[in-house]
Amino acid sequence: MRTWAAAGRATAFALFAVAVAIDLFRVPQLSIWGDEGFSIGLVSGTWSEFWRYAWTKEVNMVLYHALLKVWLDVTAAIGIPPDELVVRLPSVAFAGLAVVVVFWTGRRFWGATVGVVAAALLVLNHVMLVNARYTRAYTLEVFLVSLGWFVLLVAMSAARHRTLWWVAYALIMTAAVYAHLFSGLVLAAQVVAFGALLVLPNDWRARAKRSLRAMVICIAAISVAILPLGFYAVTHGSPNLHVQASSPYEMGRALWNFAGHSIVYGLLLAAAATTGVLLTLRARTRPWRRALPVGAAVALCAWLAVPFALAYVASQPGFNLHLFAWGYLVVVVPALCLLAGVGVVAVRRPLARVALAICLVVAAAFAIPQDTFGPSQDFRSAAAWIAEHYEARDGLVCNAWSCALAFSYYTRLDRLPAALLEASALQWSWVDGDATPLDLASVRAYTQIHPRIFFVESLVGGDRADVKARAVAAREWLDSRYPVLADFSIEGSVGQVRVRLYDTLAAPF
To answer: What is the pTM of this model?
Structure first.
């Protein structure tokens, strides 16, 4: 028993190390982009400023932002600058911890094979890799949600310390919702799963009946604890208006990203997960059925399907709560990986089982898109180009909030001249708590006081139509009056960053 436990700990540590190593690949050279610039900017002020902004403008991800602020305050106190690696280390660590939790979940309820296969698939999943490299809350959310499911299943099945397990479950899921509001849909999935175990004939039905009182108390306690978030959501509405209404196209886009942009891997992953579900149901009448617990599989199915379905329905045109985005749906990826692992062990022939496990992991590795390890928008290179061409009294105009936040970050790292941003027409205001529209009249006045202007374009598909129209008008006005001294552009997975340097001392065309 001790050898088995030691082997489990060693495997968990190895999986964590591999996950961190992969997630850290090229991170020190990876540019910050708009969303990350927002998170870093939010936690760069005082605690009073942070809490004021969080509870009046953006409460989502409040737990993550608080932890990020603690991390950056500590690193700053010991003289470590908040470069691209430092600001992303918490996300990388949470991603590694999520992999460990998935391994332990698979190992406890299905065996070590399921744990290793599921953890490996999670490490190599495109959506997880992308989010592990962002200074955002998604990997913290995945870690807490995965841990919440593990603790819930243990609380229902444990013979000892059941009260402690249930208290831990309530605390973890409360924290998950404070990490990201989307976790509320996962909480709903846990209620659905528990109800299904309580009503449907299955091997966990007795456990569900025994746990009914504890589950009701926990859900009630969690509901009370997250009331401030619910009140904020009702009074402020969705902050993610850029998220499109759900549609078959958006559903396909989410599945395409789950599959790493690979049809072959997507089909193989879906086949393995489906096999796991079907053979688990079939195994109810087989002598080896204990290796495939139906109750735990029901929980995985609810974990995968319920948040996906609720987000899709809640984001329909006419009633769009802006929830159906493939980045948000990363919380269901661990369930998909675990079901695929169950599909592997459900195959009884040892050689076929080994072959399926190898095929899944190899296909997952080859399915990682090339742009996974590239920048979403490369403001780092744009900032370096501007710094190289900068002269005293130059001005800077950003046509989007993403540029303003990213360049503010690179200015704090001394990669852009501070004087360039001091009087610049940046499209973000922490006082107003939102992007500020690009005003053509202000741009005209700005050209009169600066001999040269860096005009930065960084719009993405989710930006509003009126913002895009204002940006086009400003660029066309500059193009129609002043010569371009130099031009720089660089592509990213989300969008291009382009910089034009205008000579505003030249006679207008």
So the answer is: 0.94
